[in-house]
């Protein structure tokens, strides 16, 4: 009887850990995706009017501040590179999906989560007709190791609680 009770308690603890892992993974990566979107929007905000005759856009790098491990790349609608982070060689050698959204990549033997975002900037909005719309494509990625570290910490907390509960309610 004691062995059966301990087995049920152990299985319950394992089930709690699996559910905790799934829940923590979901919530942490959901928050990470929101953070990535916010950082990509900041990069989009750094795309400005180039003040040239062709009404082109440029990436205003002095006002752009991103974490050192993050990578980004910005392209205009004609396929011209506006800028990229100095710690990345670019997306030319990788298969980047053509649709907006999140996807996983490996850069320099590290796991990243990347967002592809298509946006637009208006050049000379004060002109008659409201200015000219310029499409922009942004690739923005951040390493996922800190997210997995947080998930592991949360699951370890649940495991410690479950172990303590098993010890307290033991035979």
Give structural attributes.
171 residues, alpha+beta, 5-stranded antiparallel beta sheet, two-stranded antiparallel sheet, 2 helices, 7 strands, 40% helix
Q: Layout of helices and strands, plus pairs?
A:
Blueprint: H1 2-45, E1 47-49, E2 57-59, E3 71-76, E4 81-84, E5 101-107, E6 110-123, E7 132-143, H2 145-168
Antiparallel strand pairs: 1-2, 3-4, 3-7, 5-6, 6-7
Helix pairs in contact: 1-2
What would the principal axes of the Cα set say about the shape?
elongated
Q: What's the tally of helices?
A: 2
Helix percentage range: 25-40%
What structural category do the secondary elements indicate? Answer: alpha+beta
**How are the strands of the biggest sheet laid out side by side?**
4-3-7-6-5
Radius of gyration: 23 Å
Strand content: 25-35%
Order of helices and strands: HEEEEEEEH
Largest sheet geometry: 5 strands, antiparallel
Please tell me the overall pLDDT: 91
Distance between the termini: 10 Å
Unreliable residue runs: none
Number of strands: 7
Descriptive report:
It is a single chain. The protein has 171 residues and is of the alpha+beta class. Helix content is 40%, strand content 29%. The protein is built from two helices and seven strands; from the N terminus they run αβββββββα. The strands form two sheets. A five-stranded antiparallel beta sheet has the order 4-3-7-6-5. A hairpin with a 2-residue loop joins strand 5 (101-107) and strand 6 (110-123). Helix 1 packs antiparallel against helix 2 (145-168). It is elongated and about 85 Å long. The relative contact order is 0.19. The mean pLDDT is 91.
